[in-house]
Design brief:
Elements lengths: L14 E4 L8 E6 L3 E6 L3 E7 L4 E7 L8 H8 L11 E12 L2 E10 L2 E14 L4 E7 L3 H7 L12
Antiparallel strand pairs: 1-4, 2-3, 4-5, 5-6, 6-7, 7-8, 8-9
């Protein structure tokens, strides 16, 4: 599949870019029991975006760096109940395809958490760019229950307080 807009400009121009953590943020929010939204940040991440005819995105997250800014909750997230960061120190995303529509780029890929890989979509809105930087915002929606049902090892309990 060619990743081109109606004009002859590639959606992701040819080249390879490292995601610069000093200019980037990886943040998340989780609905808890449908009542409260818990926000967090992941300072330990890296990624590479390759553009051109067959664009790709690869990213990793250091599971030990995931924080909600509350020590007890963070310790629980690091435990075997959730990410089991000692045994599985890395979460990984690898794109499988990229498509575009209007002002959105959709990156389809596989997200691996605790050796369980599930397909996900990164919905990315295009932002401003310069000769050395491109700005974009991406949204990934993942259902923890999906990982729990796919393998007993993931064991993301819905009854635990996080």
């Amino acid at each position: 599949m060619s990743i081109l807009t109606e004009s002859p400009v590639a959606v992701i121009p040819a080249g390879t870019w490292s995601i610069d953590p000093s200019w980037s943020a990886l943040e998340f929010d989780v609905r808890k029991l449908g009542l409260v939204t818990v926000k967090g940040r992941v300072p330990g991440f890296s990624g590479v975006i390759t553009g051109g005819e067959t664009p790709s995105v690869v990213g990793t997250v250091d599971a030990t760096s995931i924080t909600t800014f509350e020590a007890d909750r963070d310790a629980h997230l690091q435990s075997p109940d959730f990410f089991d960061a000692q045994r599985y120190p890395e979460l990984r995303f690898v794109s499988t395809s990229v498509e575009t529509s209007d002002d959105e780029i959709v990156v389809h890929g596989d997200l691996t958490i605790k050796d369980v890989t599930r397909p996900v979509e990164l919905r990315t809105t295009r932002g401003s760019s310069s000769s050395t930087r491109r700005r974009a915002s991406a949204l990934l929606t993942a259902d923890c229950v999906t990982w729990r049902r796919s393998a007993a090892r993931v064991a993301l309990p819905s009854t635990r307080t996080v």
